[in-house]
Design a protein that fits this description.
77% of the residues lie in helices and 0% in strands. The protein is mainly alpha-helical.
Amino acid sequence: MNRIAILAPLALVALAGCGDQAAREKAAAEARAKAAAAEKAKLLDDALALNTRCYAAVKWQEKFLDSPVPRSITGGAAPFLAYYRTMIANKLGDQVVPAAPPKPELSKANLDTYLAWAANDQIASGFAQGDRAQGQATFATCVQSAAEFGTGTMAKLSPAERLGKIQELRQIMAATGG
């Protein structure tokens, strides 16, 4: 009987320790899940921001891309706008990114409204007011990136030929103030 009296409190202490361990494991699992969700949200935000910036850069230079010589090099603005719109839609999936006005929420159902707002906002606050050379570099990089993934007439070119066409496009932009 004395053994049971001595072992009973030890058993309770051992069970209490197990309970603390289970609670710690649960807390650690919740922390890992929260960190994974935060990382996933950050990756989504980064991907959306990059593709939205490229969409806005192409929209900013849409008239330039649709002019005769750049159109013969790239195939015009439409394929690049469609490429970046599709990239944004695919990254977004069925998620909804809430926003505070005047920025509209970002969702598949509201994608065109969001892109119109984002393009106008980035053109007005970034490309039009910022360093024009930096804006042109962003634009050229976005066109080159999309072309490397199969967009426009440069998609069929070798990497060296594509780079030459991008350089030609940059020279035309510099000469015309595009």
